[in-house]
Structures are given as structure tokens and as C-alpha cells.
Write a structure and sequence with these properties.
- The complex is a heterodimer of chains A (360) and B (429).
- Helix content of chain A is 35%, strand content 4%.
- Chain A has helices at 2-14, 31-37, 55-65, 67-70, 106-116, 127-140, 171-174, 176-179, 208-223, 255-264, 304-311, 318-326, 328-331, 345-356, and strands at residues 27-28, 52-54, 149-151, 166-168, 194-197.
- Chain A has a two-stranded antiparallel ribbon.
- Chain A is extended.
- Chain A has 14 helices and five strands.
- Chain A has 360 residues and is mainly alpha-helical.
- Chain B is globular.
- With 429 residues, chain B is mainly beta.
- In chain B, β18 and β19 form a beta hairpin.
- Chain B folds into two domains: 108-295, Oxidoreductase, molybdopterin-binding domain (Sulfite Oxidase, Chain A, domain 2); 300-426, Immunoglobulin-like.
- Chain B has helices at 17-26, 45-48, 52-55, 142-145, 175-179, 192-199, 224-229, 394-401, and strands at residues 79-80, 91-94, 113-114, 127-132, 138-141, 151-158, 182-191, 207-212, 219-223, 232-237, 240-241, 251-253, 266-272, 287-288, 294-296, 304-309, 321-330, 336-342, 350-351, 353-355, 364-372, 377-385, 414-417, 423-428.
- Classes of the chains: A mainly alpha (360), B mainly beta (429).
- β1 of chain A pairs antiparallel with β5 (138-141) of chain B, so a sheet runs across the interface.
């Protein structure tokens, strides 16, 4: 780091232009403002808010707000992150790095959940709720019993198993002696052979635009009339036309409403897909949901509330969608959509128009 | 600041014009035809016939108030790998480096990495707070920031996970996918030092926490020495306002250090006396080694290079004869002094030519021109930086780190060029 210190000292001497005239820029932050934004927590407990929460409360919150992505046991659904387990796997070929197996400090769990989770609805949890969820995450990682309560008072007593598993970057000391040798230029080592090919895995996405580009290269080669070597043209690719998005006329809604709804849709798309090829994600895809019974998208695992409401004859129309979207939890209590709702009535109407524009 | 771009004349034996022709001569009699331009069998209709663009009017001014690339360049786009992540709002895409030249990355194709999607912040709603161990806890508006003295600097930003897939061997066919989590832009902004001095850092203020305003509230600990050295609070890239996906209206610039620290939508700088050990410096961005222990705070990006063309997405379809190999080289600790290119998988090396500006912690562009005889090649590039660090092979890195560390893979990349001109991502041993 001394290299940096020297550089900064130098910069201070020959430094930036004089700032005397800038002394008045900005304003003093108010304590309330600092309190609102300064929510970070450190391993020594600095920054922890007052509060407490137990494993049982945490389980309830986790099931409702976290489990549909991170899994009931923290195992992660699909490609969503795993948050529990993986003990003893750090030396394995495919280590599983979780709170229990890898993270050094509990403060990181509290800090991160408080600032960033649930995904798509951040900073919606109260301190007590975060204590409870953090306690539950400890429980899922076999680090506490089910009668455990976490609070500002006992927080720093909890140590995670891998706390000593980290050390400061030492690449310069350990690797650089090897990597700063004058390199060999000729007849270096034995002749080499290919030992692995990316193509074998077939994980590179197919891409019509790249195929079209390759066709362009071949046409350019032909135009220069030169020796095209052994270059065999790959399957000639058609110039891929950009797929045009078709605006379907929505049942009784104006194009302006649909367009307004499209903007508001940003809040929903973390969990829902619509349009061509839409698939179920955290929530069901919503093609054709307008006019359909509640909880009836094929292949999606709904909570019992939605399935039952559908069986009782409830249908998604303007009125039911409007009420649901205004306050999803109040309208169908204990459903699994962890979303606070849309307060603005026009925005809800836009969303409904937008959803209605996607038929089956 | 700018070093002479052409390294060929500096005695290192770079590929000068002399070297280029000499190489062609050595390639043998079979290729002599290439020495004299060929004669066309018949006149070229592109020349003999009047083409529509030579006859009719094209679009007028203002046809595109904000211009776009030629429609014939529709393939020059960022791409993602869908199966890598559950959701595009917590995901990454890649810069099409295989289609670019020079050292500057155009704004619209700088790779994206988001943890909670792109935040949309109007300039009048933007606030930057400095709090913690300072004499005066401050709030700045964008207007305030624009009234401080500014500086312009060109820096690369590389994600620590760039090339991370390759730890376990050749994975994805394309320089865009293997090396595309990088871009190089000119940033305009205020030195972070200026703002910290303005707030008055207290003597025990040795660390700071940079925090974003997006729904992931991205946060990273940064040592004070770095903050005072060359970090910037930037509001422009390549002359225009930051793109939304790059942190509009304001991002942090942390030259030479891993991209995750360049917090976008920067909302707060807190000064403290210890690091915070937040999620992005514990769960992520720590380098797990073979013995199960992990390095933390591996901030610096070490010297690295890659041949961008030819590469799997940019094959050689012109056939034998004069061929240009080009690529990028960079180092987070300084400038690039030299790039070598091998055609035989690393047994023999040739000095490449660096062209364009050679700037501190910026991409460098290199070229190696040679006469291709149509035989299969195993092409590689190797960068050496101003600190004397020589880009290692992937296997040499694995000896120190195993294969599970995800981040900081800067090993030498091999592309296999087939006689057909098609190119594949391979590993050699």
C-alpha cells in the first residue's frame, strides 16, 4: 500500500486547483437524514438497531417472504441463491458457499437482508423482523436451537464457523515472485496439444445475429475475390429480422392505458413474465390471466388460498384485479405474492390494461 | 502521460513493416501469388452499375436525433448467458469485444452487471451524502458536484469474475463471453479526495463505505489510501452523461480495482475506522483457494490480455495470406509495457505492436500482422505490465489457487484457428 500513499501525498502537493471558492458547496446533513440512510452494520455490532426476534417468528416471515426463492430449507429454488447448508464443502470441487459454510460474520446477514431483501421489495422489513429472519437463517444452518432469540444485546456473541477462513490478499507476496520472471520467447517447453474444448460442453448460447455476421464475412471474402482458403461456408444464415412486438387490442382498454401499464410493469417483472414464450418464474406467467379463474395458470404451484379462491368461482376481472393489486396480502390473506401493492388507482388500471393485452 | 504508441521501433523487435514482409517471404513459394494483387475475371457491378445509394437521397439530418450504429452492425450488441442467473435484474451481460477496435468502449455496449436492475433517478432527485468520521456530515446535489473542479481520466473497468468460468477449463465459445466483462471509458468527475477534504476526514478515518441507491443498496469497503489516491465521483462517460445502466447520474470510479467496487447510483460515502465486511466482500468477491481458505480484499486487477480477433465469434473467412491478429491488454497496477503473441500454443512468441494511447490502468490495443498459410493455429497473447508482472498461464494460476476461486482469472487464453478459418475456445497442455 505504500505505493498508494506516496502517490496520494504527491497529489496533495501538486494537487487539484485551489478550492477556496468551493468551500460553500453542499450543505450539512441533518441527523434524521443520516439516520435514514446510514443502516450499515459492522462485525463489531456497530450500527445494529434496537430490537429482537426469535426463530419461530423468523420461520413464519421466511416462509412467506423468502422461501419461494431461497427454498424452505435455504436450498435455493432453481438458480436462486442457496443460503443454508454446504458444511464441509469448501475443499470440494464444487463448494457450496452459504451463511453456515462460508460467511465469516453474522453482521453481514443482518446488514444484507435489511438493505436488499426480499429481492424486488428491499428495505420493507422492520428491525425486529430482520432479527427474527436472521435467527431463522442461523437455525437453518444448524447454528442455534429452535428456542433461540436474537437481539441487539446478544448479537456479537454469535460467531460463524468460518470466521478464521479468510486472510488478506497476499498475491503480491506469494505469486508475484513467480509471475515477474523474464518470460521465455523460443522453444519454450514441449509441444502442446489441445486438452479441452469449450464446444464439448455446448453451453454457448445460439445466436442468429452472429450467424448472420458470419454470412456477412463470407460475402465480404467473396467480394475481395481472394483465395478463401479452405474456408467452408457454415450453414448460410438468414439476416435475422428483429421480432416485431404485436400490440393486441386489449379488451376495452385504450392504447394509452396499455402503454402506461407497461411502464408500471417494471415492479412486477422480477416475478412475472408476459408475452411470447413467457414462462413461470417466482410468480406464474400472466398470459391469458385476465378473464380466467384465479390460480389457474397451468403448471404453477399456487398457495392454497389462490387455488381455493379459483375453485370457489373467483375470476380475474377489472374489479378483482384492482382490489388484489391494491393490497395483495389483505385481499387474499396468506397468498405467496410478497408485494406491497400499488397505491395509485390509475397505475393499477394501466397494469390491468397491460395484462389484458396478453391473451393465451 | 502518453507513451509512444508504436513499440516496434524501440529495439524489442516488434512487428515493423520490415518484419511483416520478412514473415511473408519466409512463408514460402506456395504463397507468392499473394505478393501481386489478383486480376478480376469480370468488372465488378458494384463499380460499373449505379447503386441506389449513389442515385437516390438518403435520410436527412435529424432522421435519428441520437444516432445509432449502421443497421449492418446489428450483431454488435451486449449478450447474456441466460442459464447463468435466475433473473435479468440480478445478472450480467458481456461487451462485444470481438467486434471492437481501438481502446474506447462505446457507451451503449459497455457490459452491465446489476444486483437489483437499473435504478431510474432523475438528476434533481439525486443526493450524495458523506457521513461518519468527518468534521462535517454533508449532502451534495448533482448541481453541487458540477460546481467542483473536474478531471478527465480513461480507465478500464473489469468485473472480478471476468473469465471466471474458465477456472475449470474452456467453457464458452466467444471472447465476448470469456473476456467481455470489461469496458474502457473516459470519465469526467470530481476527485473523491476533493469531496473528502471538503467534509474533513478525521485522523482515525481509515476506511470508507461506498453505497449505491439502487434496490440492492450495493456497498463496498475501500481503504482511505485508495480513496485519496485516484478515485473519482464521476458523472460523465465518454463525454456524455453516464448511461442509466452504468449508474446515472453518478458512480464511483476506482481505477484498476475490481468493477464491483465502482458503486453505481452512488448515494453515500461513510468514513469509518474499520472495514464493514459486507456481502459483496465476504460471500462474494473473496477468492476461495484449494485448501478451503479464502483471500479477502483482492481488489487489484492484475495484468491480462486476450486476442479479440480472430476469436470464436470472429473467424477468419478471408483465407490465407495477410492476416491481422488484434487484442486488448490491461493492468490494474499501471501500463502495459509489452504484449507477445504465439501461434503455436505458447512454444514460440513474437512481439506484438501496441498502437494508440498507453495510459495508466487503461486498455491497450495490440496488433500482430502475419502471413497465414492456412494451417491450424493455437493463438495466444501474453501481457507484461510496468510493474514487471507477466501474465501467467491458466495452469500456473491453478497451481496457486485451485479451480474454485471464481474471481481474478487472468491466465493466458488459447484460441484454436482451424484451416476453415473457424475458431474455437480450447485449452492446451
Amino acid at each position: 500500500m505504500s505505493r498508494l500513499l506516496e502517490a496520494s501525498a504527491l497529489a496533495l502537493v501538486i494537487g487539484a486547483p485551489a478550492l477556496a471558492h468551493a468551500d460553500t458547496l453542499g450543505r450539512l446533513a441533518l441527523p434524521e437524514e443520516v439516520a435514514a440512510w446510514d443502516i450499515d452494520i459492522r462485525p463489531d455490532g456497530a450500527g445494529l438497531p434496537e430490537g429482537r426476534g426469535d426463530v419461530w417468528t423468523g420461520e413464519e416471515l421466511y416462509e412467506l417472504q423468502c422461501a419461494h426463492c431461497h427454498g424452505t430449507f435455504g436450498e435455493g429454488i432453481g438458480a436462486w441463491p442457496v443460503v443454508a447448508g454446504g458444511f464441509g464443502t469448501l475443499t470440494h470441487e464444487h463448494p457450496e458457499k452459504t451463511i453456515g459454510s462460508y460467511w465469516p460474520y453474522l453482521s453481514t446477514v443482518f446488514d444484507y437482508v435489511y438493505r436488499a431483501m426480499p429481492y424486488g421489495f428491499a428495505q420493507s422489513l422492520e428491525p425486529d423482523e430482520v432479527y427474527a429472519i436472521t435467527a431463522y437463517l442461523l437455525y437453518l444452518n444448524d447454528l442455534v436451537e429452535d428456542d433461540f432469540e436474537l437481539s441487539a444485546e446478544n448479537f456479537t456473541e454469535i460467531r460463524l464457523p468460518n470466521e478464521d477462513g479468510f486472510y488478506m490478499d497476499d498475491r503480491v507476496e506469494t505469486e508475484w515472485p513467480t509471475f515477474t520472471q523474464e518470460p521465455c520467447m523460443t522453444d519454450c517447453g514441449d509441444a502442446v496439444a489441445v486438452s479441452m474444448r469449450a464446444a464439448v460442453l455446448e453451453v454457448t448460447p445460439d445466436d442468429p445475429l452472429t450467424d448472420a455476421r458470419h454470412a456477412q464475412y463470407l460475402a465480404m471474402a467473396a467480394a475481395s475475390g481472394g483465395d478463401a482458403g479452405d474456408a467452408g461456408p457454415p450453414a448460410a444464415a438468414e439476416e435475422a429480422a428483429a421480432p416485431e412486438e404485436e400490440e393486441e387490442a386489449a379488451a376495452g382498454y385504450t392504447p394509452e392505458q396499455v402503454a402506461g401499464g407497461e411502464a408500471a410493469w417494471r415492479q412486477c417483472r422480477t416475478c412475472h413474465n408476459v408475452g411470447d414464450g413467457a414462462r413461470h418464474a417466482v410468480g406464474p406467467h400472466l398470459n391469458g390471466v385476465y378473464g380466467a379463474p384465479v390460480g389457474a395458470q397451468e403448471g404453477f404451484r399456487y398457495s392454497p388460498v389462490l387455488t381455493e379462491a379459483g375453485a370457489d368461482g373467483m375470476v380475474w376481472d377489472n374489479a378483482t384485479l384492482d382490489a388484489f393489486l391494491e393490497n395483495p396480502r389483505a385481499h387474499l390473506p396468506r397468498n405467496r405474492m410478497s408485494f406491497n401493492g400499488v397505491r395509485d388507482a390509475d397505475e393499477r388500471q394501466g397494469l390491468i390494461a397491460y395484462i389484458a393485452s396478453f391473451g393465451e | 502521460m502518453t507513451k509512444p504508441g508504436d513499440k516496434a521501433g524501440d529495439g524489442t523487435g516488434g512487428t515493423s513493416r520490415r518484419g511483416f514482409l520478412g514473415g511473408a517471404g519466409l512463408a514460402g513459394a506456395g504463397l507468392i501469388a499473394g505478393m501481386v494483387p489478383a486480376r478480376a475475371a469480370s468488372p465488378d457491378p458494384m463499380i460499373t452499375e449505379v447503386q441506389p445509394w449513389a442515385q437516390f437521397l438518403g435520410p436527412g439530418v435529424d432522421d435519428a436525433p441520437y444516432g445509432k450504429p449502421s443497421p449492418h452492425e446489428a450483431h454488435v450488441i451486449r449478450r447474456n448467458v441466460e442459464w447463468l442467473t435466475a433473473d435479468t435484474a440480478s445478472s450480467v451481460n458481456f461487451t462485444p469485444i470481438h467486434e471492437l477496435d481501438g481502446i474506447i468502449t462505446p457507451n451503449g455496449i459497455c457490459f452491465e452487471r446489476h444486483h437489483a436492475g437499473v435504478a431510474d433517478i432523475a438528476p434533481q432527485d439525486y443526493r450524495l451524502m458523506i457521513n461518519g468520521l468527518v468534521d462535517r456530515e454533508m449532502v451534495f446535489t448533482l448541481q453541487d458536484l458540477l460546481r467542483f473542479p473536474r478531471e478527465n481520466r480513461i480507465y478500464f473497468l473489469e468485473c472480478a469474475a471476468n473469465t471466471g468460468m474458465e477456472w475449470r477449463g474452456a467453457q464458452l465459445n466467444g471472447a465476448q463471453f470469456t473476456h467481455g466483462m470489461i469496458h474502457n471509458c473516459m470519465y469526467t468527475g470530481v476527485p473523491l479526495r476533493t469531496l473528502l477534504e471538503h467534509a474533513g476526514v478525521q485522523p482515525n478515518g481509515t476506511w470508507l463505505l461506498a453505497e449505491g441507491a439502487d434496490a440492492s443498496a450495493m456497498s463496498r469497503s475501500i481503504p482511505m489510501e485508495k480513496a485519496l489516491d485516484d478515485c473519482m465521483v464521476a458523472f460523465r462517460m465518454n463525454g456524455e452523461a453516464l448511461r442509466p445502466e452504468q449508474g446515472y447520474p453518478v458512480r464511483l470510479v476506482v481505477p484498476g480495482w475490481e468493477g464491483n467496487m465502482w458503486v453505481k447510483w452512488l448515494r453515500r460515502i461513510e468514513v469509518g475506522d474499520a472495514p464493514w465486511h459486507h456481502r459483496e466482500e465476504t460471500s462474494k468477491y473473496t477468492d476461495l483457494l484449494a485448501d478451503g481458505r479464502a483471500r479477502r480484499f483482492t481488489w487489484e486487477m492484475h495484468a491480462k490480455s486476450v486476442i479479440t480477433s480472430p476469436s470464436p465469434q470472429a473467424p477468419i473467412y478471408h483465407g490465407r495470406g495477410p492476416t491481422v491478429i488484434t487484442g486488448l491488454a490491461w493492468s490494474g497496477v499501471g501500463t502495459i509495457d509489452r504484449v507477445d503473441v504465439s501461434l503455436d500454443g505458447g512454444r514460440n512468441w513474437h512481439h506484438a505492436r501496441i498502437d494508440g494511447p498507453s495510459l495508466d490502468k487503461s486498455l491497450h490495443r495490440f496488433y500482430y500482422e502475419f502471413d497465414w498459410d492456412g494451417s491450424p493455429l493455437l493463438i495466444q497473447s501474453r501481457a507484461m505490465d510496468s510493474a514487471g508482472y507477466v501474465q501467467p498461464t491458466k495452469d500456473a494460476l491453478r497451481e496457486f489457487r485451485g479451480t474454485a476461486s471464481i474471481y481474478h482469472m487472468n491466465g493466458i487464453q488459447t484460441w484454436q484457428v482451424h484451416s476453415s478459418g473457424e475458431v474455437e475456445n480450447v485449452e492446451v497442455a
